[in-house]
Batch of 2 targets.
Target 1
Amino acid sequence: MHIFRFSSQQGARLGVGIDGQRFDLSAAGPEVRDVSSWLAMRNPVAVVVDAVARVRDFPLADDVSLLAPIDTQEVWASGVTYLRSKVARMEESEEGGDFYDRVYAAERPELFFKATYSRVAGPGKPIRIRRDSAWNVPEPELALVLSSSGEIVGYTIGNDVSSRSIEGENPLYLPQAKVYDGCCALGPMIALNDGRQSVRGIQMTISRGGTTVFAGETSTAKMRRSAEELAAYLFRESTFAAGVFLLTGTGIVPPDDFTLHPGDVVSITIEGIGILQNPVA
Ligand code: DO4
Ligand code: MG
């Protein structure tokens, strides 16, 4: 089952996709009127399962306009959870970057604040690269959708768009490399956590003027840490009354001579979730 957010004449609403058919989930009651109300529930997965029986009378057209599946939540991100990310960052770092090596092996993960919902692009909407950065990349990442109690309610696709030149110049510049207008994309849907799929393939292609200029793939099986471990660290000493999104790190890094250009189109596919496609502004 997939949860999505869509625009309607009554404003943004939640929908549910079941066996290829779409229904208006918000019609089922106030607990599913928006992402915040839903993720504030004690057991959001059970709430959807219960609501499904009541939504069959509210079908939606296949072509509803999808929005980013986030309303008031913060977006956090994990770093250096794949070997590929550690190696690439040690190479880009002007100081040699042995701290990446240490955090990869340490018990405590690297977690950082990534975006407010206002900085998140939905499906088809433009992501941005910093104009004061010469080296910019997309980072395709599995995103955890966490309830107010820290439960993994579902999974969506995230793009942690980053400046590698600013991050490489000095690690203290990380917030500027990571957080700016249009720095993140989420969507197109949330795959509800049914406890079945633990390993997912991730693919990314970047096209420029209709030609593929980069293609890469990885699998969440290559992550050094579990999703549960990352979520548990995020909830240490922090509360998220309306839930939170947590990106789990990138395992696909384009070669060092690659940088995003305005007009490029980034497509990220994650098994069981869908395809998140965004043009670069
Ligand atoms: O350490 C800096 C950021 C790492 C990151 O974003 C990633 O590994 O995906
Ligand atoms: Mg990242």
Target 2
Amino acid sequence: MLAASGGVSGFSRNLHYTEIQLKSGGFVMSEQGGEPITKGADRARLRCLVIGAGMSGILSGINILSKNYKLVSIVEKADKIGGTWRENTYPGLTCDVPSHAYTYSFAANPEWTRALPPGAEIQAYFEGVVEHYGLKPYLAFSEEIVACQWRQREWLVRAKSGREWRADVVIAATGVLHHRRMPDIPGLEHFEGHCFHTSRWDHTVELADKRIGVIGNGSTGVQIISALAGEVARLSHFQRTPQWIMPVENPAFTEEQRAAFRTNPALMEMVRNDPTYVESVRRFTEAVANPDSPEMAEIEAVVAANLEEGVADPVLRDKLRPTYRAACKRLIFSPDYYQAIQRERTELVTESIERVEAGGIRTKDGKLHELDVIALATGFHADKFMRPMQVEGRNGATLERAWARSPRAYYSVSIPDFPNFFMLNGPNGPVGNFSLIDVAEKQWAYISHLLEALQAGRAKEISASQSALDEFDARRTEAARSTVFGSGCSSWYLDAEGVPATWPWSFQRFAEEMQSPRWEDFELLA
Ligand code: NAP
């Protein structure tokens, strides 16, 4: 299907994706998808173990099979695939990346119902991909990996249950935003209503007749307020720091459009590569890297106008106006937050929270906000990655020591003295308002060169050298300090020392650097 247009898109240029497309005929949700990949002839194949069955783990599994390496297992701590999209089911859950861009390059999906994909559709998409590409037999559910040890030139991987696996290569596809950040608000345990983190939404609680408090106004809190405003007895949004909001439209795809996507998949490729979207990614990353750029001035003008035009009451407008620069925190895209917060039975609370009591939240002005439900949209510990897993590499190296200051990895994918241990969406990778699927695919393309060298017998152990990591990280850190993320706000992008733990250059540069490894930066041990 899309193989016909393979090479047109920057997403589908890599040979291994083309191979997948040739074998599978491309992915669609309907029966038009063709045959899943099957295991090839048994030979001395690289044994690869994947940790995590979310977006990156599924991508890894498909690519490992397509290269005819041995996929030992995709080990998943939960009882379902999906990662973020399995865990988050809160009302209004939507990805703010366009649907056809938040899609594997080799598995276009004509069934997206909206320009921005709803969370449940994304989960269903990944389940369909797993089924289609024959990954099910490789999935080991409810197995939390507690230790990976490099022993006699192979990885010994152990789960909490005691189950063990051996592999030549470990791919850590464990995600970024999965360790819930619970707020340190006194009295939370005394609340007598329902209280849960947004990534553990309790769907048994009927909301319509309830007084609901949402703490936190990142992307999650804003989406929940937009979904619940006017739909519940009362809605209180507890804001500690205002957020800049970028307006966005989210039209539905009509049945006619979806039918056209089914019969002519090249249309999906066109939507995916919509020049307006591609250009917006370019402009956005330019703005992040260079806060004094015209691109940043443009973003600032748009979000400021959105606030001025979107909120009628000047007092409310002042409460919603941040004092830091746009995009310093992850920019929020919302079609309707300002409308939602101005709706009947909805209020913005900017007074600081003093404590939680049995009946609700008491703010520092002495007022008790009586509540039946408290939703904690307080985010995640983004610096944990695969930890608390114990990872022991070569020469006594441990992840605990390697990451004692903060998580660091050479180009996000490799850590010195952890041979054949590679990460997708690892530390210091690109973050922002673009597709992490695209990021993972580009990182996979890079890692695949390393796997090819192992399979070809060019080395038995590959990891970045310490000097290469140090040199890369010094350059990265220096550049990161002057990005907009480091311009004076708090956010999950910052490391323990307040430095943005992110890719600090343009997305184009990331795409170029991921095309092939600089071999001199790696230690290859035969
Ligand atoms: P977040 O952006 O980290 O926001 C956490 C919020 O909780 C902030 O408003 C923070 O306030 C507040 N908070 C934390 N502790 C608090 C306390 N003790 N008292 C009062 N307020 C407190 O978390 P998130 O909204 O879950 O989003 C995390 C990331 O997930 C996003 O940036 C995005 O990458 C991803 N996400 C993406 C989408 C999407 O559409 N693609 C949707 C949802 C989430 P301060 O600002 O004052 O610290």
